[in-house]
Amino acid sequence: MDMKADDPALKMDYDTLTEWDARVQLAAAYRLVAHFGWDDLIFTHLSCRVPGPEHHFLLNPYGYLFHEITASSLVKVDKDGNAVDDDGKGKINPAGFTIHSAVHMARDDAHAVMHLHEPNCMAVSATEGGLKPLSQTAMLCQAHLAFHEYEGVALNLDERERLIRDMGDKNIMMLWNHGVLTAGKTVPEAFIYLYFFTRACEIQVRAGNGPHHLPQQQAIDTTRDQGQMLGGAGKLAWPGLVRIADDLYPGFRD
To answer: Nearest to residue 243, comparing CAs of 22, 13, 32?
Structure first.
C-alpha cells in the first residue's frame, strides 16, 4: 500500500489526531499483536483515549479475535464503562474496562494502554525477581518498569486505585503472575514498550535457569539511562509495523 503523509495510521502527534485516526492506529495495533502471536483469544485488550474533553476511550468488542478488529468495530466507552454512540457492536470485557479506565483516568499522558497475557511475560512474572538484566533489551526497559501484585481477575473497581498507585509515572508494569501493561502518549509509543518488554521476557525464558552471565553494574546503569528515550523508538518503527499490518491484514482500516 502506498502510504501518504496524511495517512491516519502514521500520524504521531496525539494532539492532532481525530477519533478516526485513533481508531485506525488502534486497529493496526490489534492486528500486529495477532501477527506477533501475543494475543490470548479474546481475553486481553488495547485501548486508546478518544481525542477531546469527554474522557472517552476505545476498546475491543468482547468476543472478537484480535485479527478481526477493525477501526469501525472498536467500542467507544466513557469512564464508567458505558458504551457511547452504541450501535449494537457488542459489549466490552469488564476486566479490560477496570484495568484500562484506571490508567486513562489517572494519567493525562496515557493516551494508549495495552495489556497482554503473552506467555513469556507471564512466565517471567511468575519468577522470583521478575525481569533480570540478562540482555540489552531488558536493561533498556528497566527505567520504565513498575510492578503490581496479582489480586484475581480484574473485576473489582477498587483495584484501580492500587493499579495507578503501583504504576506511578512508569510506562511498563509487570503484573505479577498475570502479564504486562504498557502506557504511552500514542499508540506507537505504547506498542514499542510492549515490543521491547515482550522480547526481553522471551530472551530470559530462552536463557533458562542459568547460570547466567550478568554485566557489570556500571553497564546496567548506563543502559538503563540510555533506555529513558525508549518510547521515541515508536516513531521510527511504527511506519514499518503499519506496512506489516497493511500487507497481512488490509481490512483493519475499515
So the answer is: 32
C-alpha 115: how far from chain center: 5
Chain-centroid distance, C-alpha 206: 23
Average pLDDT of the segment spanning 49-69: 91
Of 191, 50, 197, nearest in space to 114 by CA: 191
Strand order, beta sheet including 172-175: 75-77, 57-59, 45-49, 112-116, 179-184, 172-175, 145-148
- Dihedral over Cα of 133, 138, 143, 145: its sign: negative
Q: What is the pLDDT of residue 1?
A: 46
- For all residues of the chain together, what is the average pLDDT? 91
**What CA–CA distance (Å, rounded) separates 90 from 60?**
9
Question: What span, in angstroms and rounded, lies between the C-alpha atoms of 12 and 238?
Answer: 9
C-alpha cell at 108: 493525562
User: Residues near 216 by Cβ (< 8 Å), separated by ≥ 6?
Assistant: none
Q: What is the pTM of this model?
A: 0.93
